[in-house]
């Protein structure tokens, strides 16, 4: 089995140790699923510290989409198709999620 070494601050390591103890596993066992998810070739979403910004952007875009839908359903449909194509190209949408 390969070994990976990373450096993290002491406070983070202590939080990881507490969490691992709570669920009865080692820190390595706790982290393996997250590492596996990150390396998944299907490109699923991986949690980052940017999630708060992402949620604000999604809310803003939802409001914009609702406004465009009311004024021009065709424009919204084309915009959504373009967005799906970009997400697919960037690996953020799996091919089976395409309509």
From TrEMBL:
GO terms for biological process: regulation of DNA-templated transcription. SUPFAM superfamilies: Ribbon-helix-helix. It comes from the Bacteria. Pfam families: RHH_1. This is Ribbon-helix-helix CopG family protein. InterPro entries: CopG, Ribbon_hlx_hlx. Residues 3-37 form the Ribbon-helix-helix protein CopG domain.
């Amino acid at each position: 089995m390969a070994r990976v070494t990373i450096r993290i601050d002491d406070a983070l390591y202590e939080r990881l140790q507490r969490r691992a103890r709570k669920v009865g596993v080692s820190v390595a066992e706790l982290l393996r699923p997250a590492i596996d998810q990150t390396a998944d070739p299907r490109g699923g979403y991986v949690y980052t510290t940017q999630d708060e910004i992402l949620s604000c952007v999604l809310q803003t875009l939802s409001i914009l989409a609702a406004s465009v839908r009311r004024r021009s359903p065709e424009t919204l449909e084309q915009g959504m198709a373009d967005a799906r194509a970009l997400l697919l190209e960037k690996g953020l949408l799996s091919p089976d999620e395409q309509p």
